[in-house]
């Protein structure tokens, strides 16, 4: 069967990356987590003092964009590509609540988006790719052969993110995580440039009541009918 492009979009913590990794491993495709790229730019901005919870020097971040180099390196121990910022593996640093609290404001900046979208399109030009994010089916790969839009109830999503952070030993409260998921959804759907919307030709999957395996089988069937 021919190699295709699979675009997975949806709200925060809908399990996009879990599904995308499963698919990529099964199909022998490359997986790209575009959220990690926005998080890495945010981490860079935080390290340099360009953004805090109540301050954002957009101009300086925009001027620094040429000095931000991102790449992924496949780690066989974890089975996916980990993100590197200017040569440093920042896979763990970008998953904190602090980065989550700032990332959606960074992702609103058009200059940030166009830089990352260009790199994403370059990574996907040979097809055989599964990419997850917010604008993959609408902006990055509008011609993707298969587009999935994932959703789940707010409580389900907040619970998942909470469990994930706790399992990594982070001290967070459920309320804090719920608030962050809600805030990111709001900013991501209301921003001017590339807001989160379901592409017209995307297939919506609500996995509030599906387990991982059921969801995977459902999407594999879709892949079989497309490729
Ligand atoms: O996927 P993840 O939740 O890690 O993404 C973090 C944030 O990055 C999102 O809340 C969103 O603001 C931004 N993002 C985006 N476009 C993408 C991927 C992520 O704006 N394609």
UniProtKB/TrEMBL annotation:
Assigned keywords, A-Z: ATP-binding, Cytoplasm, Kinase, Nucleotide-binding, Transferase
Family matches, as InterPro entries: Cytidylate_kin (IPR003136), Cytidylate_kinase_dom (IPR011994), P-loop_NTPase (IPR027417)
Molecular-function GO terms, alphabetical: ATP binding; dCMP kinase activity
Domain Cytidylate kinase: 6-223
Residues that coordinate or bind ATP: 10-18
GO-annotated biological processes: nucleobase-containing small molecule interconversion; pyrimidine nucleotide metabolic process
The EC number(s) this enzyme carries: 2.7.4.25
Pfam families: Cytidylate_kin
Reactions catalysed: dCMP + ATP = dCDP + ADP; CMP + ATP = CDP + ADP
Subcellular compartments: Cytoplasm
Family: Belongs to the cytidylate kinase family. Type 1 subfamily.
Superkingdom field: Bacteria
Phylogenetic placement of the source organism: Bacteria, Pseudomonadati, Bacteroidota, Flavobacteriia, Flavobacteriales
Protein name as annotated: Cytidylate kinase
SUPFAM superfamilies cross-referenced by the UniProt entry: P-loop containing nucleoside triphosphate hydrolases (SSF52540)
GO cellular component terms, A-Z: cytosol
Primary subcellular site in the record, as a coarse category: cytoplasm
